[in-house]
Write a structure and sequence with these properties.
heterodimer; A: mainly beta; seven-stranded mixed β-sheet; four-stranded antiparallel β-sheet; B: mainly beta; 12 strands; globular
């Protein structure tokens, strides 16, 4: 499968623990996005990268959240000191090109990493 | 900031019925509009998109959507639904501004569509 892959698919953790999610985008896709989706809501933008540069962070992303894309390929999203409100599906998506609007406008999504904080 | 509204949270139809899902956006300038679909157990995927030109756009699996600028709407339609159309449908918008900070999709809350055989 050459699509976007995310790991782990499901993580159950206790409040206060740290968790890390990994996303492997489609090869050669420059853009990588993280979204969060809770039940009954659409995906909410968290952050995105152009190669290794993090270009924008949502105000939803508190100081406990950090994302990296060290070599411009895979990305990690770490949540420190998890809270029950962090329970959600964390979606990764990628797209080709330096300017999204000049491309097809299509984001290729992974299947998500579901976080449950007890 | 742009936002997207989908007022139909859950729609239940019988097979062969016609479908229209509402989508309204709030931005007065140039926008690009999308519908994404998520089938049960699968990832989000693009159904159709509007960038410019003909306001009636056709997508995969017989879906179409009409961009009506005066109504700030981009409703999704299908003349005859099938059981396999059961899924969650998300409308999304991106504002056509070239500077960084707007290079992201903003999604609506989604509409769950259930088709009864």
């Amino acid at each position: 499968d050459t699509g976007v892959s995310q790991d782990p698919r499901h993580k159950i953790t206790k409040r206060g623990q740290n968790v890390t999610f990994r996303c492997d985008p489609i090869s050669e896709h420059n853009r990588l996005y993280w979204y969060r989706q809770t039940l009954g809501q659409g995906p909410e933008f968290l952050t995105y990268f152009q190669n290794e540069a993090q270009l924008e962070k949502s105000r939803l992303l508190s100081d406990r959240f950090s994302a990296e894309r060290p070599k411009g390929s895979f990305s990690t999203l770490e949540i420190q000191r998890t809270e029950q409100g962090d329970s959600a599906m964390y979606l990764c998506a990628s797209s080709l090109g330096t300017t999204f609007l000049l491309q097809t406008g299509e984001l290729f999504f992974g299947e998500g990493s579901r976080l449950t904080v007890l | 900031a742009q936002s997207v509204s989908q007022h139909n949270h859950h729609v239940i139809l019988s097979e062969a019925a016609s479908l229209e899902l509402g989508c309204n956006y709030s931005y007065g300038g140039t926008v690009n509009l999308f519908w994404y679909v998520q089938y049960p157990g699968q990832h989000l995927q693009l159904l159709l998109k509007y960038f410019s030109g003909d306001p009636l756009v056709k997508g995969i699996k017989g879906f179409e959507a009409e961009f009506i600028k005066s109504k700030f709407s981009f409703n999704l339609r299908k003349p005859s639904v099938q059981w396999s159309d059961t899924a969650e449908y998300f409308c999304a918008v991106i504002v056509s501004i070239s500077n960084f900070g707007n290079e992201k999709l903003t999604f609506g809350t989604g509409t769950r569509l259930t088709i009864i055989p």
